[in-house]
Amino acid sequence: MCLAMPAKITSINVTDESDAENSAQTHTARIDYGGLTKSVDLSFVPEAEIGQYVLVHAGFAISVLDEAEAQASISAFSQWQDEKEV
Amino acid sequence: MKFVDEFQDSAGVDHYLNIIRETISKPWRIMEICGGQTHSIRKYGIDQLLPKEIQLLHGPGCPVCVTPQEVIDQAVAIAQQENVIVCSYGDMLRVPGSGLSLLDCKARGAEVRVIYSPVEAVKIAQAESDKQVVFFAIGFETTAPGNAAAIKMARDKNLENFSALVCQVTVPAAIDLLMSQPDNLIDGFLAAGHVCTVMGYHQYHRLANSYHIPIVITGFEPVDLLAGIAACVEQLESGRYEVDNAYKRFVSEAGNKAAQELLAEVFTIQDQNWRGIGGIEKSGLGLNPKYAEFDAKSRFATVLDQALEKSRSIPLNNAEACQSGLVLQGKIKPNECPLFAKKCNPENPCGATMVSSEGACAAYYHYGVGAEKVASSA
Fold it and tell me: Which residues on B lie below 8 Å from A2 (Cβ)?
């Protein structure tokens, strides 16, 4: 159930749905899952920008990927592999 | 896919397996809380790769598995009413109630719709204003913010034909319950990474300190799982019990503030029954009284009272033999249940742990049992 996938934001759309009684803004984005595009709700990560990766669960982005941390994790084991191969 | 493939790479798998092999000196039992992690562990054979000293116990983090049978019966009773549409996450449809499942109802003509995002339920309510639309809001802290957003959206749009049957659970209360049982087998925890993207991990320090148990926030890809296990083994071998974050690319100590604020607005912490486990204090997220008008339990109170009476009169199907409650607490492995792969299989599940793809029983059934260690040995 808690399955969530990282996807890249390709565009952001803020729509104002205000009417006489209500004011509601929807904050959505188009995202790209390696070729498949979908719309997601950005309400929980309003700071997300085009080009960033977000973690998507049940139509909502719940976290913005920290690319520096991701690269640090990847280089931790890539470095080890490089050393092993030398 | 970028930021997925890298964490499925054999270089990372080898790296962390090597650390684990170099670190380990004695047997340890580590529980992954989340059913999604159980699924990945079996899918990629992670447990088969680990040194024999490490045994992975599978925890209760599968919302489909822990939703009580009487709540399924409530959803079924509502779905059987005229002019009602029940919207549910797909996994819930096949879970057996005391009589029918939601899928059985659908086959008999009830309007049960599978949704991917809770916002779809709101859209259905807007489009079908002559019908009552009931959203079956289950989930852990990962799913609850989206559920909250849908309920708030319905209120903002003044949708009088929308309500929610809410049954949500939280992880830290479950850890408390598991650790307070004297016969628990757990030496360390892999905390559910996606729950922590929402909630952060500040609330886990108390658990690590009071139970002297390492808790490592862990992701879902093979390299993430092994990195989490390696960090947990390092703590166990050096006698430390801290909260460690092995999923830094998505999880921060504070978590997602916007999601937490919405949870606090729409829901309130309450005692909650867990299927197979029983009542756990303060382990549920129910509707906040100011959203009471959207509570399906009040809107369909008469129907639900009748359903409750009926379900109490029917003996639980296979309840005595099905051991999913022990499986959910990591006390036995699925293949130790006498019904496993005999009377109980995904086509004819006796317990919810065989229904959900993330249930431990289904994961063992789909990916093979292999040469299993049993939970009580090692």
Answer: 34-36, 61, 139-140, 142-143, 192, 194-195
